[in-house]
Amino acid sequence: MVSIQARVCIRRLYHPGVPSTRLATKCCQGTQDFKGASFWNVRSFHVGKESLEDESKDNTTLVHFRESKTPHPLLAKPHQQGNAELSISLNHIWSEEEIQERLDNLYQHRPKSLTDKIMHRIMWSLYRSFNWVTGFKPVNTPVRAVEWRLIVLESFAGVPGFMAAMFRHFRCLRTLQRDHGWIHTLLEEAENERMHLLICMKMFKAGFVTRCLVIGAQVLMTPFLAAIYVVNPGAVHRFVGYLEETACLTYANIIHQVQTKGTPLNEAWAHLRAPGIAKAYWKLSEDAMWIDALKCMFADESNHRDVNHTFATMNSDDPNPFVSKHRKDAAVAWRLDSQGLSADVGCHKTLEVKKKE
Ligand SMILES: [Fe+2]
Ligand SMILES: [Fe+2]
């Protein structure tokens, strides 16, 4: 039997302008496949380029490729096709209540072992230096200081997860042994940080100095973390746990300032809409604001904090306790999408802003 994906691909050759969701629905009509298919099978159908940029294109009519202006589907590269799919994993869809609960409880791990204390000391030294370099202060922070801080922070935060996944992957290949489910969570974290960076880049640009800092942080910190990971993987997870604690503090502070009238961040950011890519990623409502995206970023960081502090306490051959959570998250995101619903993050505040406008 031809799979749903294969049928979608075949249809796409003839209807390049039609969104994936629609093709998938068409392909599944009259079959039992759609009901039987798990969300893993259909997850790629509804996170296409059209959902990131313009959901209104969903009304596209069926047009044969010969009559459309898009390049021939067999010759066109993915980005030249109107319905090119982006590979984005389905993130946890945060609710307003979950985010508020996490904002109210900024957990900080108390170092116990010598390794914990060393990692804690290194991380907080880096944090204070970073504050000094970026000119970050907790009150009335200049907008520019926050912008380049977020770009540097997010670009560096994507390193450890990917590096740890790489080490575990190679170890599996080398020792002919299984991974016990860690790699997926680590890659998911790396992708999540990369999405944070992409979302920030939609809101502000990186100058020359910021780009130098990004490169410097990657060049210096990657070998440092890799060297520690070879000897003591738990120490790196502990370090990342502390790094995420500082990220939580930063985001909580930024959210507070954006919501506090009279601050530079309130004036600059309170009225900004969330970019389309953020709305698609966290399933935010069409009216979502930039502050809603910041809240979701904060919640993601708190999740990284908890995951890494957990990994730090585990043996490397312990089964990953977060595997079932990924499945549940993907199911929730898929159901929201398939029912045309969105997360409740910031909805009432968004409405308040709309009324004043
Ligand atoms: Fe992040
Ligand atoms: Fe993070």
Structure summarized in a few sentences:
With 357 residues, this protein is mainly alpha-helical.
Describe the structure.
This protein has 357 residues and is mainly alpha-helical. The protein folds into two domains: 77 residues, no CATH class; 261 residues, Up-down Bundle (Ferritin), CATH 1.20.1260. Helix content is 65%, strand content 0%. It contains 16 helices and no strands. Helix 6 crosses helix 14 and helix 11 packs antiparallel against helix 14. The protein is globular. About 15% of the residues have low confidence. The structure holds fe (ii) ion (FE2) (2 copies). One fe (ii) ion binds next to helix 11 and helix 14. Keywords: Electron transport, Iron, Membrane, Metal-binding, Oxidoreductase, Respiratory chain, Transmembrane, Transmembrane helix, Transport. Its cofactor is Fe cation. One of its GO terms (cellular component) is membrane. This is Alternative oxidase, mitochondrial. Belongs to the alternative oxidase family.
